[in-house]
Amino acid sequence: MTRDKAGNAYESCSIEHGYAPATVLAIGTANPSSAIVPSDEFADQVFRVTKSEHRLTDLKEKLNRICHKTGIEKRHFQLTEEILRAHPEFLDSTLPSLDARMDTVETEVPKLATSAAVKAITEWGRPATDITHLVFSTYSACRAPSADLHLASLLGLRHSVCRTILSLHGCYGGGRALHIAKDIAENNHGARVLVACSETTLPCFSMPGGCNLVGDALFGDGAGVMIVGASPFTISERSLFEMVSATQRTMPGTEHALGMQVTGRGIDFHVGVQVPKLLGDNVERCLLDALALAFGNDDHDGNNVTWNDLFWAVHPGGRPILDKIETVLKLEPDKLAASRHVLREYGNMSGATIVFVLDELRRRREEEADHDHQLQEWGAMLAFGPGITVETMVLHGPRNPKAN
Ligand SMILES: CC(C)(COP(=O)(O)OP(=O)(O)OC[C@H]1O[C@@H](n2cnc3c(N)ncnc32)[C@H](O)[C@@H]1OP(=O)(O)O)[C@@H](O)C(=O)NCCC(=O)NCCSC(=O)CC(=O)O
Fold first, then answer.
1. Structural domain of residue 225, as residue ranges?
2. Which of 38, 185, 201, 359 could form a disulfide with 22 if both were Cys (CB 3.0 to 4.6 A apart)?
């Protein structure tokens, strides 16, 4: 709960003005099972399959060093040695490989999303044909029609479903898709929006090279799906998180810090060394924007917000980012536990990661409720990516997650 300087609790605008915010009604996640690679074996595997073991020993040692510092234990990948054997061009940067990579992801990205969507739809308890809108985010959408249409067909959605695809939003894709779903649900009576984020590193894989080592050590594959709607709810629908306010902020002059580029060889990415500091410098501003929108409070000096009174869903872009946010906001160590858990178990799955964090957060909240712990009612979600762009949401979670 947010308080003013005198410790008085704020009422949410939903309560004051009869406004009913959109809510997350169900969550499902999925990862490919084709390859699960522990971080301490990753450098050995990459250098073995690319036959670089004896040529680039310094680079291999560096990748090993980086992998040990990521805070990641393992990651899931769609790319297997079998696929690499079938596509030698993936390892030869002088040959075009984008088409072959897109042929593979064209089926794999929607398939992975379908696995996550089936779980979400089952939890939701209504037929897939009740979905009215679909918002799909992936950095692998380089063709049209794209993964959104394939997913709609695989799930048997109605032909009248309104589809939107977000491409190359990177790690803020999940936050952006959720923000759009909120706007749709609150402005279309009875709308039920399926938000799908499905990411695979297959378009990015290349021979080990200096500039991509950090990305190689961080990114993994996964899909996250959420169903979003606003009141009126059916009897089977349960609110996991109300999305009270959503804001986006771009940090001026940081365009070059983070980026992705589609080339004939696939997708290159750039992760600048300054990213954790930039996020640390800007996170409070982003949070205050979202809180002001949620609570109608124009006092931006930050003194009225007790960050430890909130629950947190932060995109785990990397361990130093979580460390920086924890330090700047003076968060207690367990506040980012859901984010650290997802980073440890799956790595950074770009736009899909925030869905995993919300899923882990609700699981933890349900466990805490089972143990009669007092749950935090208000929370903050942060997702960021190229721009640098930050999507921030104020969330409201039920005090008893299993009762509503
Ligand atoms: C790479 C790390 C695991 C290294 O951990 P530490 O920083 O604690 O360790 P360290 O300082 O000893 O660094 C180990 C080695 O990594 C190098 N190093 C660190 N950060 C680097 C970077 N961004 N680019 C290139 N090299 C980098 C250091 O120079 C050092 O090299 P040497 O050993 O030779 O001295 C971590 O910094 C990390 O997770 N960084 C990524 C954070 C980030 O920006 N994430 C955003 C992802 S993008 C995202 O989430 C959004 C999106 O993509 O859309």
1. 23-229
2. 185
The reply to whether ligand 1 has any atom less than 6 angstroms from the CB of 280 is no
385 pocket-lining for ligand 1 (C-beta < 6 Å): yes
The answer to whether 266 and 206 are in contact (CB under 8 A) is yes
Q: Tell me: do 45 and 179 sit in the same domain.
A: yes
Final residue in a domain of this structure, among 179, 207, 229: 229
- Minimum mean pLDDT among 7-16, 133-142, 227-236: which range? 7-16
Q: What phi, psi does 330 have (nearest 5°)?
A: 55, 45
Query: Residue 250 falls within a domain, yes or no?
Result: yes
Percent of the chain with pLDDT over 90: 81
Closest by CA position to 278, among listed 301, 255, 312: 255
Q: How confident is the model at residue 116 (pLDDT cuts 50, 70, 90)?
A: very high
Pocket of ligand 1 contains residue 331 by CB under 6 Å: no
201 and 294 part of one domain? no
ipTM of the complex: 0.97
Work out which ligand 1 atom sits closest to the CA atom of 275: 44
Q: Are 358 and 197 in contact (CB under 8 A)?
A: no
In a domain, 12, yes or no: no
- pLDDT for res 17: 52
Which tokens belong to 357? 């964090």
117 in the same domain as 152:
yes
User: How many C-beta neighbours within 10 Å does residue 80 have?
Assistant: 14
Nearest one of 146, 131, 152 to 25, comparing CA atoms: 131
Nearest to 24 by CA among 296, 403, 401, 293: 401
Cβ-contact 269, 212 below 8 angstroms: yes
Residue 357: which CATH number? 3.40.47.10
Q: Are residues 47 and 133 in the same domain?
A: yes
Instruction: Please tell me the total count of domains within the chain.
Output: 2
Q: Final residue of a domain: which of 205, 229, 253? A: 229
Q: Is 67 a catalytic residue?
A: no
